[in-house]
């Protein structure tokens, strides 16, 4: 597409209109800066042009820079800074006419203009922090000069957009346009055509720029952005905007942008950005795969999981029938759902009317036959194969033809469950994570006979209920729990060898995980992990497990729910080491003839993180996960792996696979064949994904 086509020039008498036409979101990619500069040159050379309007064609203004161009050499990247520099120095009024979104480079472009007008529903923001970078085309210098230091820091550190209505209140938008945006923008441009001097943002000072504002921001990111580079740089640059001439901050911003962009954190966050979008693409399924219309859902089980799952559907406006075996359990489940909504309303995040609307969509029942008209039925009962098979046998006789029959199992064989029905093509695993109304991940488990339509419908449904869906195959634990099982085994082994549980957890906290393996076990319930180990031993014919963690469970300590597990807990649920637990561990080591040794934080971190990587590589090799990026998405949204590390597989790429293999072998683990091959070839998981068509 030629420059003229990407940025079209047109005239309305004395106003030149530059329309950016770079679908689908008018990203600031090659061709856009050239077209804008050409338009400005044309306007400067024509005395009959009194003002310029820049507007986006299609559905939006400019949704930001093209992230794919971040990896280009600087001389090949789109010249956003040069374009904005030209706008800032332009001798005639320029008006940004904003609809849809003006995000990142789009908002920076708009702030380079003399004026900004917008539709009331337009959104404005600088989300660069979410990609581990910072506004690099004047955003850190101009935004504080427009909205003040505190509001600018809030917008840049959260990355969240604001509506144009708020933008007008804080001075970012000069006029809201209720009617036709272009007509309104042209009329506004004529009003200001002769106004001089031009009110350039770069010539303003920053309001509300006390040292306390920046000190508070630095203190705040210790919690909200712990361990991250770009928020620190953003605060430094915002402070420069307040204390130094514009040109000094403008120059420093370019340097710090490159520092952030070239950091491992930004590479990781950009990987996450693309991996999440790739995860939504199901290998082997075309965009034309038909989907089913989900108008009503059924949930079996009103406990913690069932109630949480129901809330997702209610929030999306989908009626739910929820079934329990006793009135007491049903009432208890409905009470929890209502309390959750009431608490949300008390925090101001929904109205009491919203609470009643959602509860009005919920139909409680003690009769499984009431699910006969549901388009999808999700079983969310105790993790027991016999119980689940019994339920699916009954559902097969009740559910209408074409209804999706889903199990929320976290570990069990979905093929075995599907086999008890006469319609295995309609059976799928939908593994929600607890608490199901909060956690964003949904593992979509594709059984051997699951139909393409059921699979495509499940992915579409995930988006509808605001989940991040990832398709996985059938194996014990699927992707997430299979990996966390090995991770837990390694954590227990480290304690047996001499580490304290709190040291193990601290090592993973330092890596950026909100909870280490033992903190996570206490939260989930130690009895659940113990039950899984007992079940596996029974299936394999091995003796009942008697590890140090199993012994803790047998003392009655089951985790947070009993006030104590590996740790003690008070009302704040803060974990505190327990002397009796440590004595139990010491006794266990003595019985096993283990002489405890000091284990460095480096060894703790590597053994735990690389155990995840190694199991992930095996899962990838078996085809249980289609892409390494899918594994990363699962660990980010399901297990709290820090996004600025990119997920375990991206983390391994960043550390170097040859080093990962060497460390695994040094610590006595056998590297997965795929991991070993990639290391030997000098490859990476990202490269593997690319070779498979990512």
Furnish the topology, listing elements before pairings.
Elements: H1 3-6, E1 7-12, E2 15-20, H2 32-45, E3 51-56, H3 80-88, E4 94-98, E5 101-103, H4 105-112, E6 115-118, E7 123-125, H5 139-147, H6 149-158, E8 162-163, H7 164-169, E9 175-176, H8 181-191, H9 211-224, H10 230-243, H11 246-261, H12 264-279, E10 297-300, H13 304-315, E11 320-323, H14 327-346, H15 352-360, E12 362-365, E13 376-379, H16 385-398, E14 404-407, H17 414-418, E15 427-432, E16 441-445, H18 452-464, E17 468-472, H19 480-497, H20 501-511, H21 517-524, H22 526-540, H23 548-554, E18 567-568, E19 576-577, H24 579-592, H25 601-622, H26 628-639, H27 648-655, H28 657-666, H29 673-680, H30 685-691
Description:
This protein has 694 residues and is α/β, with parallel strands linked by helices. It has an 8-stranded mixed sheet, with helices on both faces. Keywords: Fatty acid metabolism, Isomerase, Lipid degradation, Lipid metabolism, Lyase, Multifunctional enzyme, NAD, Oxidoreductase, Peroxisome. This is 3-hydroxyacyl-CoA dehydrogenase. Pfam families: 3HCDH (PF00725), 3HCDH_N (PF02737), ECH_1 (PF00378).
Radius of gyration: 28 Å
Structural class: alpha/beta
Strand residues, percent: 5-15%
Task: Provide the residue-averaged pLDDT.
Answer: 95
Helical content band: 40-55%
What does the oligomeric state look like here? single chain
Low-confidence stretches: none
Question: Which descriptor suits the 3D outline?
Answer: globular
Determine the number of helices (DSSP H or I, runs of at least 4 residues): 30
Largest sheet: 8 strands, mixed
Strand arrangement within the widest β-sheet reads 12-11-10-13-14-15-16-17
- Rounded to the nearest angstrom, the distance between the terminal CA atoms is 25 Å
Total strand segments = 19
